[in-house]
Amino acid sequence: MTERQAIVSRILNFSCVDGPGNRLVLFLQGCNFNCINCHNPHTINYCNDCGDCVEICPTNALSLDNKGKIYWDENQCTHCDQCIDICSYRSSPKVSQLTVSEVLFLIHRQKGFINGITISGGEATMQLPFIIDLFRRIKSDSQLNHLTCFVDSNGYLSRSGWDKVLPYLDGAMIDLKSWQQETHQWLVGRDNHKVIDTIRYLADKEKLHELRLLHIPGKSDLDDEIANIARLICHLPETVQVRLNAFQHHGVEGEALQWEKCSESQMLSFYQSLRPLIPHKIQLPSVYV
Ligand code: SF4
Ligand code: SF4
User: Fold this and answer.
1) Ligand 1 center from residue 52 Cα (angstroms)
2) pLDDT digits (tens, 9 = 90+) for 50-66
3) Ligand 2 mean position to 256 CA, how many Å?
4) Of 37, 15, 280, whose CA–CA distance to 154 is shortest?
5) Hey, which end of the chain has fewer CB within 10 Å, N or C?
6) Residues 269-279, mean pLDDT to the nearest whole number
7) Which regions of the chain carry the CATH code 3.30.70.20?
């Protein structure tokens, strides 16, 4: 039987901001949201092999193979990102296809230095069968089963999807980008019914590690909807951490570059409105750049 593969845009051997402790993080290509304010817009779509980026590469790291598929030679790449800048399809040729065994090999190499692994994106759950196979094999490997398995997600996966991964999942970090349907639809291209259902469902299953709230002054509505947000959070276990993220311009393109960045004082004002309404731990951003 052929092994599951993932389309991977990046691997971080160590991260301390993608779940509890030190974690190896796998960023998967592809997302089912199309956020105006996306910080990694080149991770949204799978490459369509149009070849427009081939000629721009200064080191000849890109080519089209005899099947018309883009080929990226990582050894030739200087990571100048000119290919990403020229891609009008919000994609990247700099992805790798990794099997579950290849990822397990990387995890074995790091196992003495990490507390767990996190699958992020793009939207991690777009490649759910890979995640399930990977987590299942981590949990059944006597040298790896001390590692926790986390997912960082936009929360758009259905309950039946979550049910498939829950037996192997230790925790999830879920983003809530807006409260009102119209605002959410405008900001990400989809409504938030499934996101809010995911937050409640994972909390009910004791798998919600962190709820992330993105504050975009004057654009997202979380500050105007603080009472509704607090009501949602108050129904979650107090073990759920709330992380506040401040909108910045890093990686952003298009109209969102004209939007006001979230300053420390704006974030503190949001925090001070939320703090008295919920008993949960609230994590503020450590940097505003
Ligand atoms: S990365 Fe973008 S420009 Fe390059 S081949 Fe893929 S879709 Fe075309
Ligand atoms: S990032 Fe790498 S593949 Fe892309 S243009 Fe630069 S050298 Fe070429």
Assistant:
1) 6
2) 999 999 999 999 999 99
3) 25
4) 37
5) N
6) 97
7) 48-89
Atom in ligand 1 nearest the alpha carbon of residue 51: 5
- Pocket probe for ligand 2: among 64, 71, 75, 83, the residue whose CB has the most ligand atoms within 8 Å is 83
Q: CATH class for domain 48-89?
A: alpha beta
User: Considering the domain 5-42+95-283 in this protein, what is its CATH number?
Assistant: 3.20.20.70
* Structure token digits, residue 34: 């199309």
- Convert the pLDDT of each residue in 190-207 to its tens digit: 999 999 999 999 999 999
- Ligand 1, atom 4, lies closest to the CA of 53
Instruction: Look at ligand 2, atom 2, and give the residue with the nearest C-alpha.
Output: 77
How do 5-15 and 23-28 pair as beta strands? antiparallel
Residues of the chain with CATH 3.20.20.70: 5-42+95-283
| CA 25 to chain CA centroid, nearest Å | 10
The pLDDT score that the predictor gives to residue 1 is: 73
